[in-house]
Amino acid sequence: MRIGELAERTGVSTRSLRYYEQHGLLSARRGSNGYRDYAEEDIKLVSEIRALLSVGFTLEDTRPFVDCLRSGHSTGGSCRESVAVYQRKLAEIDDEIRVLLTRRAEVAAQLGAACPGCVLKGEK
To answer: Which of 26, 69, 89, 118 is the most exposed place for a label (fewest CB within 10 A)?
Structure first.
């Protein structure tokens, strides 16, 4: 399929598809006319990339998942390298949560000092 059809079928812009190709995540074959030609399997690769990007993974983080799919696994997260990326990402999220909880407590304390008796949303 050509790039426009892949873009339409995956909901991704042709520009993004070219970007993924530039970073080695997709590999288009070239037809005799010079047009990019993608396989049906590329739909799954693009869907995996988009799903991971949508939850905060970087483009480079997606590489082990794409490699896992390319090696014949049914899911991109079933390889050891992908699991390691999941674990690292969860640790990063946990760290972000701790930072946000600390920051929230500090802001709540400042509000309490500035406005004794003020009630925060979600608290009684």
So the answer is: 118
